[in-house]
Design goal:
The chain is an all-alpha fold and 232 residues long. It has one domain (13-228). Helices cover 78% and strands 0% of the residues. The chain starts with a helix and ends with a helix.
Length: 232
């Protein structure tokens, strides 16, 4: 004869799984859709490319598509009351610490990236932006600021917030960092991207806001842009 606890375990587990699915499904679906959209968009852009095309126009069209994707993600974040809290001011007495940790981490990761053997910048949009004659400010806007906004909204804004509803803080940070690293499709930079995702996730929870993560992301990407442009 089954005990009452055994009889109650089934519905309890089922309701827990249903709640987890409700919390995670929209965010994971958005992540999957954005990855497929980026892949298809890149393939379409490669298909229409012709040598006689102006590379500046080609890059501008690509950035317009990326900007549209940023808008979609921001809309999802803004509709989620919990995720929308990432735009609040950081917790008191955490601002200085987060700025220090974020700045040092961005510089250390940039140094790590620069010491990776081989041409780590090969295939980077920054290289094509420089070759197309883009001014430095345009490349900083397209390859430093926009990714810092889109990727932080997605990973430390929406995904981390949803994972925290069903996972421990440490596991939630690790899972979103794994998805962040996988998104870049770069086996050489897989570990640095994962480390970045972990540190950004910790900063997000410590600060109670997204601004420190955005700053760290901006510094890391901006350092790479300056390296490609030969200014560092």
């Amino acid at each position: 004869m089954e005990s009452p606890d055994a009889c109650d375990a089934g519905p309890s587990v089922d309701s827990g799984l249903a709640a987890a699915g409700t919390a995670l499904r929209p965010a994971l679906l958005l992540w999957l859709v954005t990855q497929v959209a980026l892949g298809l968009y890149a393939q379409a852009m490669a298909f229409v490319w012709r040598p006689e095309m102006d590379p500046g126009v080609y890059l501008a069209v690509w950035e317009l598509g990326y900007l549209s994707l940023c808008g979609v993600v921001l809309w999802f974040v803004w509709r989620d009351p919990d995720a929308r809290r990432v735009f609040a001011p950081p917790r008191p007495r955490m601002v200085e610490l987060c700025l220090l940790v974020g700045t040092v981490t961005a510089l250390l990761l940039s140094m790590w990236e620069n010491r990776i053997p081989g041409d780590w910048s090969k295939g980077s949009p920054i290289v094509f932006e420089q070759a197309a004659g883009w001014p430095l400010w345009a490349s900083l806007l397209a390859s430093s600021l926009m990714p810092a906004l889109f990727e932080e909204w997605m990973y430390r804004g929406l995904l981390l917030q949803r994972f925290r509803r069903v996972l421990s803080p440490a596991l939630a940070i690790a899972v979103q960092a794994m998805l962040f690293a996988a998104m870049h499709r770069d086996d050489v930079m897989l570990l640095p991207h994962f480390v970045f995702g972990v540190v950004a996730g910790v900063l997000r929870l410590a600060a109670g806001a997204l601004w420190p993560c955005m700053l760290m992301h901006l510094l890391w990407n901006g350092h790479v842009v300056l390296l490609v442009y030969g200014l560092l």
